[in-house]
Write a structure and sequence with these properties.
The structure holds 2 protein chains of 2 kinds. Chain A is of the alpha+beta class. Chain A has helices at 16-26, 55-67, 99-108, 129-139; strands at residues 2-11, 31-38, 44-53, 71-76, 82-93, 112-116, 120-127, 144-149, 153-156. The termini of chain B are far apart. The chains are: A alpha+beta, B alpha/beta. Chain A: It comes from Lacunisphaera limnophila.
């Protein structure tokens, strides 16, 4: 089992998120994180799904995503050079004694203070999910009043051609590292 | 451009799609559509007795004809009653389109009378579904529904249409409503290199075997598969839904594989060095224990649905695409072969089973289901017959003893295993093929789930022949209780109504038969009757289906058929042979513990409760 990051381009129609989420549930895959947002193309939304599964499981997820009528294209970024970012808002309790320390930590993490009052500081942090987890860990001893994370969004590095070509099929024996039968990445 | 109401647009679309019959049940939210129906007399509407029946009928119609079946129901309970039929069609890849009424678009979300989120409810059991709230969107939704239902891997599609969308008017433009589905790619084609690799594997194989599934029936490729098998000398075995894909009378056809498949077939699968799976999906009822399944074999898997590849069984070559195209690509690369040694091995194993053939058992005064089914087959051989079965023991006996030579001549609920499927599906099949005889083979349990559809058959004046295999038990569950639960028959003994009187109450004919010597006369009488006939075949109560691979056991560790000479010895405790090695996963640890405590069955390998000849009486 390992984390797999899949990108799905979907038609922006009512219920499409439900279809995707339902697919994971009924095929018994656990979603680590799922984010949806618009793209540069009108009518097309983009999902970043992180699932904890085997390599073969990822192929099954990918094939099943393609089976949904509203899904336009699926990319697996797991083994590609990619950027992954998440945004977190952390509201941490402060006292006159700890304020300076916390501001220092916010600085170290290149986070930004977005709200301050006499009892709390709220910081905005972006980065990899690991970085946000670390930021939370560091601030926890001071007392976290509230926290929210957006979930990961991912994008391949460099020039990644966008293609509407039909899924390619390959089998285990072609790719020793890949314990699966098909890949539908374009 | 014509302005029509949404309801009229529905019927115009159905007409354009070539629909000649729909199965449905009216209600408040679909009432505008029913009202408009009177203007479209070319489409025949069949009033069912329960919406589940409508979906099974549409399914039976689709399976018998190869066309799309249509079912109509109202919102809320009408639509939820359809769910079992939709799930059945989904599991067996049957193309049906369900049209349901929905409460007015402004009432959606208010828990209005008979409101249910039907697209939500049916999402996991449809290939795709729609909620339409504007009359202008109806035509495109229905066109897309038909296209999705029948293309690629077929399946059910539901279109939920609000009441106001049915009432309001819009321009009906068929051309403009052409499907726009940028993400839907039903037709795949495997790369050329895969075809070459597949052909190489076939040419190199010494013990190849074709696993023939329903995909052959759906793609109509019986001839092509037979040609491949003949050229390369490959024996064929079929799945349950693949029955009829290869004629039973073909010498290349070994019979059915899997849990209740023939012993020589399951042994051949385990010994094969190449499995060529055509339009089948390695269901758990077909493979048994996956850890020991066909370990000696390379696997070529041809399927139109990419999600089936490597789902259960990892394969060496995957050919995703239309079976007809795949076979056309492979055939020229396949060399002639006869595999005489392999055939000899299989034939030897087959010969061993001859002594176990229940057909050789002389009439001993008891009526066995296998005999009933075999006799129906013999007596209907010269007629074009479609058999529709329910789920359970009778289904397996039908699969084993009715020898189907034509595709689409056996209709059965395979994947979902839906009790109550047979009678309504048979009515649908009769509408698809009015010139063929339609037989329903059904257990007394499943029949009672949807027997109300006898009224539909009577009202429509159609004839189906209903053979109830009545053993006063939920037979298959009873069999499992006998084998694996120490004969504790919890909630499986079942009484039924007087089925003869029940048929008569519906103004149909009823017959009863409890003697083997009477089967012929009963069947002859049934065929002569112009009305639907219900036959109550009162058979042996505690008969079991053999061979059997216990769930989770290795495929070749079957409980074999009893030897017929032994079967006749009264009091013998050696009526069947359990496999020599322990059956894994058959008993849960708890059961094994419980057995140890009661001093019975010291280990998982112990034989299940002995059956004495007495219990047969």
């Amino acid at each position: 089992m390992a984390k797999h990051t899949l990108i799905a381009y979907v038609e922006d129609v009512p219920g499409v998120l439900n279809r995707v989420a339902s697919l994971f549930r009924r095929r018994n895959f656990n979603i680590d994180s799922l984010t949806v947002g618009g793209t540069d193309q009108p009518g097309v939304s983009r999902l970043t799904v992180v699932v904890d599964t085997t390599e073969a499981g990822a192929r099954i997820v990918e094939a099943n995503l393609y089976k949904l009528v509203n899904v336009l294209r699926v990319d697996d970024l797991t083994h590609k050079a990619s950027l992954t970012r998440e945004l977190g808002l952390v509201k941490v309790k402060v006292t006159p004694d700890t304020r300076a320390q916390i501001l220092q930590l916010v600085d170290v993490f290149r986070a930004r203070v977005v709200d301050v009052d006499e009892k709390t500081i709220t910081a905005e942090v972006t980065g990899t999910p690991e970085k946000i987890a670390k930021f939370e860990l560091i601030l926890r001893p001071y007392g976290i009043a509230e926290m929210v994370r957006t979930g990961a969004v991912s994008m391949a590095r460099g020039h990644e051609p966008v293609s509407s070509a039909p899924p390619q099929v390959r089998t285990v024996t072609d790719h020793a590292h890949d314990n699966s039968g098909i890949s539908m990445s374009v | 451009m014509k302005k029509l109401t949404g309801a009229e647009i529905i019927w115009e679309c159905l007409q354009k799609e070539g629909v000649d019959v729909v199965f449905g049940y009216p209600g408040g939210a679909i009432l505008p559509t029913y009202d408009a129906m009177t203007k479209y007399p070319k489409i025949h509407h069949v009033l069912v007795r329960h919406e589940q029946g409508a979906t099974h009928m549409a399914d039976g119609y689709a399976r018998a004809s190869g066309k799309v079946g249509v079912a109509i129901a109202t919102s809320g309970p009408g639509a939820t009653n359809m769910v079992t039929g939709i799930a059945t069609a989904m599991m067996d890849s049957s193309p049906i389109v369900c049209i349901t009424g929905q409460v007015g678009s402004k009432a959606i979300g208010t828990d209005a009378f008979q409101e249910t989120d039907v697209t939500g409810v049916t999402l996991p059991v449809t290939k795709h579904n729609y909620l339409v709230t504007k009359p202008g969107d109806i035509a495109r939704a229905i066109r897309e529904a038909f296209y999705i239902a029948k293309s690629g891997r077929p399946g059910p599609v539901l279109v939920d249409i609000t009441k106001d969308a049915q009432q309001l008017t819009a321009e009906f433009d068929w051309e403009a409503a052409a499907p726009k589905l940028p993400g839907y790619r039903p037709n795949h084609r495997a790369p050329d290199s895969e075809f070459t690799r597949a052909a190489e594997l076939i040419n190199a194989a010494k013990r190849p075997l074709i696993l023939a599934g329903q995909g052959i029936i759906k793609s109509g490729t019986t001839e092509e598969v037979l040609k491949l098998a003949k050229t390369a000398g490959i024996p064929i075995t079929t799945t349950l839904l693949g029955i009829g894909a290869i004629p039973a009378s073909s010498p290349l056809n070994l019979g059915m594989m899997g849990m209740h498949g023939e012993s020589w077939v399951n042994e051949a699968i385990q010994q094969a060095d190449l499995l060529i799976a055509l339009g089948m999906r390695f269901d758990d009822r077909v493979t048994g224990n996956l850890k020991t399944y066909a370990l000696n074999a390379k696997k070529i898997h041809v399927d139109i649905d990419p999600t089936e590849i490597n789902k259960n069984v990892p394969v060496d070559v995957a050919l995703i695409g239309d079976l007809r195209e795949v076979l056309a690509e492979i055939q020229p690369q396949v060399k002639k072969a006869d595999h005489a040694d392999w055939w000899t091995t299989i034939k030897a194993a087959r010969g061993d089973s001859a002594v176990r053939d229940i057909q050789t058992l002389p009439d001993n005064g008891h009526l066995y289901a296998a005999h009933v089914i075999n006799d129906i087959w013999r007596l209907t051989q010269k007629r074009e017959t479609i058999v529709v079965t329910d789920v359970g023991q009778h289904q397996m006996w039908e699969a084993q003893y009715f020898r189907h030579d034509e595709p689409r001549s056996l209709i059965t609920s395979g994947g979902l295993g839906t009790m109550g499927f047979a009678l309504p599906a048979a009515i649908g099949a009769k509408f698809a093929c009015p010139d063929k005889d339609v037989w329903v083979v059904v257990g007394d349990g499943g029949f009672q789930m949807t027997s109300c559809e006898l009224a539909t058959a009577e009202q429509e004046g159609i004839k189906v022949n209903v053979a109830i295999i009545n053993n006063s038990f939920l037979g298959m569950v009873r069999q499992w209780q006998e084998f694996f639960y120490d004969k504790r028959y919890a909630a499986t003994p079942m009484t039924g109504p007087d089925f003869v009187k029940l048929a008569e109450a519906y103004r149909l004919s009823g017959l009863r038969c409890n003697q083997r010597s009477d089967v012929k006369a009963t069947v002859t009488k049934t065929l002569a009757d112009k009305k639907t006939v219900v036959i109550d075949f009162v058979v042996e109560k505690e008969d079991s289906v053999f061979p059997m691979v216990p769930a989770g056991a290795d495929l070749d560790k079957m409980i074999r058929r009893p030897k017929q000479d032994v079967m006749l010895e009264s009091g013998s405790d050696k009526e069947w042979e359990m496999p020599a090695s322990p059956l894994p996963n058959v008993f849960t640890e708890k059961q094994v513990e419980a057995k140890a405590l009661t001093g019975r069955g010291k280990s998982a390998s112990a034989r299940p409760a002995k059956k004495t000849a007495k219990s047969r009486r």
